[in-house]
């Protein structure tokens, strides 16, 4: 009985979300380190070649639970007004797999000695696959599940604006402007659309406040908006100790609470881990929470002057 409930929930969360306007994009507890995935205006903002890798195992021990991997790299060019980047992600939920590859470009304007405003564009494609025939169904003749979706490639574009100072940032973005269709099932009485991308809007913000010389408070947030789904906000409150160790707590509205820890192994290499537990879904009965690990490395250019240390965002 538990297995049946698990399979039913996976179908609701994966295929059901394709047919209605729901949150489709992957979620990240380390969104503050994975900014390029949601806002192309972030490209080149760290004044170094920054490489970030992330892995998220969501709802551990839940059959068909989401698994997400991302890899981003970005850097300013010799022209200080230009930043470029590359974003790769792979998101698997049950029988559904979505892989994306996007190039990012940002034009950076220096507003004054302490602040910058960047406008970013991204362009790329997603590869969507769904092995629907592998599912065990009560009604084997259901036409929605008769045909697999194999390597369905859809192009897309994104836009973002990113404002930053040494201890504050804020941004708005639409990572996927096009609302592509995944699959249409033809039936005797017409056609049924069973898969369509929904446009998502993101707002990000964060700051760092010094409490003492060796203790700082870092609140951040990520707000997600899409059609026919509740507005969802991630709110994270972290403390930075001795400019190296980060410990914090997070809250995701209607979904999860959790904790995260990070450590600067060197001035260039950061490692972070988080655990969150879903309280707002029935799936919480059948899973042991979600784990996430993030790695970030900055390659400093030898001829680059006045690099900010530490770089908070």
Protein model, in words:
It is a single chain. This protein is mainly beta. The protein has one domain: monomeric porin ompg (Porin), CATH 2.40.160. 6% of the residues lie in helices and 55% in strands. The protein is built from 1 helix and 17 strands. It has a 14-stranded antiparallel barrel. Strand 14 and strand 15 form a beta hairpin. The chain is globular and about 65 Å long.
SSE arrangement, N to C: HEEEEEEEEEEEEEEEEE
Number of strands: 17
The chain-level structural class is mainly beta
CATH level-two architecture = Beta Barrel
Using brief descriptors, characterize the structure shown.
313 residues, globular, Porin, mainly beta, two-stranded antiparallel ribbon, 55% strand, 14-stranded antiparallel β-barrel
């Amino acid at each position: 009985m538990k297995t049946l409930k698990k399979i039913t929930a996976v179908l609701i969360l994966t295929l059901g979300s394709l047919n209605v306007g729901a949150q489709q994009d992957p979620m990240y507890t380390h969104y503050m380190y994975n900014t390029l995935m949601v806002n192309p205006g972030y490209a080149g903002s760290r004044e170094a070649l920054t490489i970030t890798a992330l892995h998220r195992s969501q709802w551990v021990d839940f059959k068909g639970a989401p698994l997400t991997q991302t890899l981003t790299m970005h850097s300013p060019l010799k022209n200080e007004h230009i930043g470029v980047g590359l974003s790769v992600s792979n998101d698997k939920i049950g029988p559904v797999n979505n892989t994306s590859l996007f190039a990012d470009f940002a034009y950076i304007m220096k507003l004054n000695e302490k602040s910058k405003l960047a406008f970013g564009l991204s362009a790329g494609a997603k590869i969507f696959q769904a092995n629907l025939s592998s599912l065990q169904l009560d009604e084997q003749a259901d036409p929605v599940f008769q045909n697999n979706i194999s390597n369905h490639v859809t192009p897309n574009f994104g836009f973002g604006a990113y404002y930053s100072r040494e201890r504050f940032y804020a941004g708005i973005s639409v990572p996927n402007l096009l609302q592509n269709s995944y699959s249409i099932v033809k039936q005797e009485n017409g056609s049924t659309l069973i898969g369509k991308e929904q446009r998502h809007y993101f707002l990000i913000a964060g700051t760092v406040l010094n409490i003492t010389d060796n203790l700082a408070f870092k609140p951040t947030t990520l707000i997600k908006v899409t059609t026919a789904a509740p507005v969802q906000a991630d709110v994270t409150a972290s403390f930075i100790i001795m400019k190296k160790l980060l410990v914090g707590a997070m809250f995701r509205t209607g979904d999860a609470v959790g904790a995260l820890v990070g450590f600067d192994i060197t001035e260039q290499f950061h490692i972070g881990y988080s655990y969150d537990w879903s309280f707002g879904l029935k799936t919480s009965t059948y899973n042991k929470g979600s784990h996430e690990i993030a790695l970030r490395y900055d390659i400093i250019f030898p001829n680059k002057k006045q690099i900010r240390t530490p770089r908070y965002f």
